[in-house]
Amino acid sequence: MYERYEFRVRGxxxxxxxxxxxxxxxxxxxxxxxxxxxxxxxxxxRLLTRLDDSGVEVVCLSRVGAASGSHxxxxxxxxxxxxxxxxxxxxxxx
Length: 94
What we know:
Layout: E1 3-10, H1 15-20, E2 25-29, E3 32-39, H2 41-53, E4 58-64, E5 71-74
Antiparallel strand pairs: 1-3, 1-4, 2-3, 4-5
């Protein structure tokens, strides 16, 4: 079964690594890059191994577009909060 994933990695992905990831979409952001695409469990494991072997630091891994919502995990395995969400605080509306 294929799932959509987004990886956030520290720094810039060089041209050789981007060519090796040709089936995935790579985007450069300030201080980090993103890699997005549909992967099977085996593809996910191979990509994580390839990134690790290349010395690329994965900052966050997210499964996106899942039927039950999206799930983000920082490299320590703790669920990351979604951008714009407030963790542990609630402001009542007027």
